[in-house]
Input
Amino acid sequence: MSFIHSIKFRFTIWYLLVLAVLLIALSGGVYFYLSRSLYQSLDRALAIRCTQLCSIQDILESIRRGEFQEQLGEIVILYFYSGDQLVEVSAPGIGVSLSPEFVSKTIGGSSSFVSSQTAEGERLRLVAVSINLSTLGPPPGIQPAALVIARSTRQIENILARLVGTLAIAVLLTLALAAGGGIFLAGRALKPVDKIAQTAQEIEENDLSRRINVNTKDELGRLAATLNAMIGRLEKAFQRQRQFTSDASHELRTPLAVIEAESTLALQKERPPSDYRQSLETISQEARQMSSLIEQLLTLARADAGKEQWNFAEVNLGKLIKDLGTDVEVLCQEKGLSFQLGQTQDLVVKGDEARLRGLFMNLLDNAIKYTPSPGTVSVSLRREGQMAVVAVKDTGVSIPAENIPFIFERFYRVDKSRSRTEGGTGLGLAISRHIAEAHGGKIEVESQVGTGSTFSVWLPLLSP
Output
C-alpha cells in the first residue's frame, strides 16, 4: 500500500489542515491587531499635532500666508472661502485628493479622520478640523476655515508588509515541521496497526493458535483484544468442526463396514435361508443406526445454520409428562425396571411440543438404557420461581465427575464400547441441550456413585 493511501497520510493531511487554519487565523489576528494599533497611534499623533497648531495663532497665520514649515513627512493644508471661491493654502508641490464636498463639510464644523492619497499615489492618513480665522486680521470677511494635517502611511505599510512576510515564512516553516512531526507521530501511534495486520496475515486456518501481541490500554489495545477473542472463537469453531467431521466419519464408517462385510459374506457362496435372514437383519439394524445418525446430524446442521422451524404454542407440561409416562412404563417393564411418575403440576410453557417431547423422551430413553435391572426410573415436574423443572432420575451407573462437563458435547461418550452396543450415537444429549436453550432454558445433571444420575430441564413458565 502506498503512503498516499495510508491512514498516516490522511491523519497528517487533516492535522496540517487544522493547524494551517489555526495559524492563518492567528496570523490574521496579529496582522489586524497591529494594523489597527499603528493607525490608531497615527490618528492620536495627528490629533495632538492638530491641537498644537490650532492653539497658536502665529502658526495659523503662518499657515494662511503659506510660510509654515512642516515637519518631515507632514503635510499641512488650509482651506477657506474667499467670497465664493475655495482657496487652498499648502506647501509648493503638494497635492492631496480631497473632494470639495468633504472640505465644505469640514469648514461647516465637522471633524474627521480619513485616508487619502497624493497626486503621485502615496497613501496618506489625515485629520480635518474646522477653525476660525476671524481673529487673524485681514483679509476681511474670512472667518470659517478647514485645517488638514496629513502624514504618510508608508512606514506603517512597510511594517505590515514585513510582518506579512515574517508570518508567511513562520507559517510555512511551522507546517513543514508539523508535517514531519505528524508523519513521525502517526507512524509511532499506528505502528501497532501494522503489527496487527502482519500477524493477521500470518495466521492461517490450520494454525489459529497465534495471537496478536499489543500490550496497550488504548483503542488499538481493545481492537487487538477483540481480534484475539475472535480468533479464539474461530479456533474453537474449527476444532469443533474437525472433531465433528472426524467423529461423524468414524460413526458412519462402522455401520458401513458391517454392511459391507455382511453383504460380502452372504454373496460368497450359497448359504441356508437362516444365514441370509440373519445377515439381512444385521444390515437392516446398521441401516437404521445410520439413518438415525444422519437425521441427528441434519438436526444439528440446521441448528448451527439457524434454519430450524419451530412451532411455538402453549404447552401443558403436566399433561405432556403424564402422556410420556404411559409409554415409558411399558419400556421399563420390558427391561425389568420400575417406573415412578412423581409429582406433576399443570405448568404451562411456550414451546414446540414435538421438540419438547423428543427432549424428555431422549432423557428417559437414556435412563432406561443405562439402568440395569432391577432398577428404577422416575420423572417429576415442579415449579421453582418462574421456571418449570422436569427431573429425570435413574438408579443406573453414575457418570464420573470428570466426564460431566463434556457429556453434552457432540459424539462424546463416557463408555464408547457400551454406547455402541446400546445403539447410541453420542448426539442425543447435544440435541437435548440445544432444544432446551432454544426454549430459553437449560439442562443440568447431577450424578453420584451408587445412586445414579438426575437430569433436570429448566424451562421458563408462560407469563399470565
Notes: The first helix runs from residue 7 to 54.
